[in-house]
Amino acid sequence: MKWNKGLVVQFWLAMNSLVLTGVLTISMLYLWLETTHLEEALKNEGITAAKTLNSAIGLSMLEGDYSNLSPLTYSLQSEPNIAYVIIRDKEGNTVNQKGETTLGNLIIEKLPIEYYKENVGEVEIGLKTTALEKQQKIVLFETIITVIIYSILSLIFSYVISRRLTAPIKKLISATKQLSKGYRNVDALEKKGVIEIQQLAIEFNKMAKTIQNHEEILVNKINNATKDLSNKVAMLEVFDSISNSVLEDDVQSSEVIKSTLVNIQKYMGVEHISLTVMNQQKKLEVHKLEQYNIISSFILQLEDTCFIYAIDHKQIIVRNHFQLYNGSYFEQALLKEGMNSLLILPIIAKNTAIGTLNIASTEENYFSEDIIEQLQPFTNHIALAFDRVAAYESLHKSAYHDYLTGLPNFRLFKMYVQDAIEKAKQNNTLAAILFLDLDRFKAVNDTFGHATGDLLLRHISKQIVSCLDESDTVSRIGGDEFTILLPLLLDHTEPILVAEKIMKALENPVIIKGYKIPISTSIGISFYPKDGNDADTLIKLADHAMYKVKQHEKNNYAIYSRQDDKYFGNQIVLENSIRKAINNDELVVYYQPKINIQNGRVSGVEALVRWIHPEKGLIPPQTFIPQAEETGLIISIGEFVLLQACHQCVTWQKMGLPPIPVSVNLSPHQFLQASLVSNIEKIIKKTGINPELLELEITESMSMDINRSIVILQELKDLGVHIVVDDFGTGYSSLNYLRKLPIDTVKIDKTFINDMTIDQNNEAIVATIITMAHNLKLTVTAEGAETEEQVKYLKRYLCDNVQGYYFSKPLPATEFETLYSQLVMEAQKTILLYA
After folding, report:
1. 694-699 and 662-665 beta bridge pairing
2. Which residues form the GGDEF domain (predicted)?
């Protein structure tokens, strides 16, 4: 029940309990005292009677005369409260007794009988308690009545007090309930009552007033916030519309601009609005809504300083009043259009101003700080939208264009080809595909680095474009490969002329970062409809034709023929066969002697790889080495030859032959390996060859990157090996570079040796190379010497070593061992013959 939890009841119970406890305590104390007093009075009565008897019988008890005891005891026993009297002598014997000792509850008092302080006996008196008990009951009854009366009075008094004390509190509770229901004009103040409660009521009233004030403030803020929220919602709707316009699958900048202008005009309700945007040529373009009367002056005065200043300084331009006569021509033009206020907001994306949002109004002083603050978020959102459009356009371009050259990529090129095929069908014309691959580009790229290679590709792409008509399309499909589409052809001659024109344009070396880099291209050509009816087929067949050129003469073009398919298939078979040859130990090393024509000694051998096919027999190097270089298998072949040559050199010494230096060619792929030096060092340690007997031959083109080449060659020299520059005279390293390289020997290319006896220029070149090398403290080896006259010329010009068929073809190791003595004899004979 809730009634017993009320403040009045609880206060009343507490107060009444306290009073009742006090009344009961006092009453019980009074009852106990009064009862004790009555009992003590009864005992005193018995003691008094005993003392009276004591004084009367003391002498008689001393003398032992008990004759006069009975009247005395009888007189005592006749008292109403005395039940019996017993007198005993000093031995404790009863000498007289009056009354009954068994009459209910008795109080017994014993008192000694003395005569002049001598104990002569004892008197025992039994006191009746009947009267005592009656008086005690009367006292108990009176006490109970008193407790009841005081309790009733206490209940009434405490109730009155509790009601009086809790009345203000109840008023506070009532006021609080009113406050909680929303009533604010409440008053809980009591003029009378407890001071603390009055103070509480005062503070309550203050609190109610404060709440009322805060609620009024809050309501105002809510109203303002609601209004602001409505504006924000409207603004978000505009943002949403602009955002949706840039989320289209095929987003167009014109659609985004149109959506932006329409939605901002709808939001602001202004008469005139436009966008000026900086295009890629850094010129301002104006965009307007055709359905609104956009100010023509925006277009006429596009170059006005307002726009330029807003963009350059990223500052807002506000003009809330125009002057008809003293203002600028721009202001006068706006005023004639009925405009009295102008706002130009810069659009900033990635900290760069990319345009302006321009709003004009017919009202003067229209653009307040609040309106400007409302409009500024639009410029941010417009910047994001434009950034999204730019990102989409960039993504679209990257999806269909080559990132390096900007040319169409393979995907877009195929689309163009397919479109050209459809048009050729309709017009009964031809179309051609040219597939270009740069010659030796990988060596250039690996030697000079990718940055230089990228510059070279950009240059070549421009050269190719310059050779084409506007209707033609060139594409970079990856690496150093380009494709060209020639649409709507009338005959088969035009692609040939274009191919020759491109090769002519690439004849001159390209100078990049101080390097003169010669470049050429191999071109394959296919035709629609002769070779195929779809883009993939035509591109693939042009690639096949190009590959055939690549494998033979390079720097040429070829028209696809069906025989190319067989050739291309053979190349794939060849590649697989080379892999098997490496794994099945079908490769062997032959050795071609080098003869010192000044002293007649065998000065060394060059290790040359040969392929002994289990079915086809000996396969010449020119058949499989180009394919091995193209596929990267040359690295495995080169390491095999190096290991075998070092083993053989050590074996010959153990057989008793004099130390014979062995030369091993390093392919460009090997030379550019990061692990080249460590691999060679491992082979030297594994085979136990003296490093001074190992010669490593590099081509002149491998040293184009002089700084890198010096580092690699010096590390090889530190191992103790000798460095030889092979095919000298055919590359494009300057003599200055040659002077800086840590080399030991140059080998004159056989193309100079072949014609030196019939071409004075070649003879002069050979003589010059020999003289120059000797001046640089280098030895010279002439390769490809096949005639007696060639050897005679070389000896005359003091060439150190000769290598060629005149002395010996490449030989297996065992055959070289057998013919070694004969080689020495022939060399000595030659020396004597031309001495």
Report:
1. parallel
2. 429-562
pLDDT of residue 718: 95
Question: Hey, how many other C-beta atoms are within 10 angstroms of the C-beta on 738?
Answer: 20
Query: In this structure, are residues 76 and 82 in contact, taking their beta carbons and an 8 Å threshold?
Result: yes
Domain end, chosen from 351, 366, 398, is at 398
Q: What is the pTM of this model?
A: 0.46
Residue 667: CB atoms within 10 Å: 20
Question: For the range 444-453, what are the long-range contacts, defined as Cβ-Cβ under 8 Å and sequence gap of 24 or more?
Answer: 444/517, 444/519, 444/704, 445/480, 446/668, 446/672, 447/668, 447/672, 447/701, 447/702, 447/704, 447/705, 447/708, 448/512, 448/513, 448/515, 448/517, 448/704, 448/705, 449/705, 452/512, 452/513, 452/515
Domain C-terminal end among 370, 398, 426:
398
Asked if residues 646 and 684 have their Cβ atoms less than 8 Å apart, the reply is yes
Per the CB < 8 A criterion, the answer to whether 676 and 712 are in contact is yes
Q: Tell how strand 694-699 and strand 722-728 pair up.
A: parallel
Terminal alpha carbon distance of the chain: 143
Report the C-alpha gap between 756 and 761 in whole angstroms.
8
How confident is the model at residue 297, as a pLDDT?
42
Write down the pLDDT at residue 803.
95
Site of tokens 């028209």: 559
Residues 541, 661, single domain; the answer is no
Residue stretches of the chain with pLDDT short of 50: 1-3, 247, 249, 291-305, 324-327, 732
CATH, residue 22: 3.30.450.20
Tokens of 759: 């071409």
Residue 408 has what pLDDT? 92
Q: Please state the φ and ψ torsions of residue 261, each to the nearest 5 degrees.
A: -65, -45
Distance of alpha carbon 246 from alpha carbon 255, whole angstroms: 9
Bond before 487 cis per omega within 30 degrees: no
Total domain count for the chain?
A: 4
Element (H, E) at 208: helix 195-245
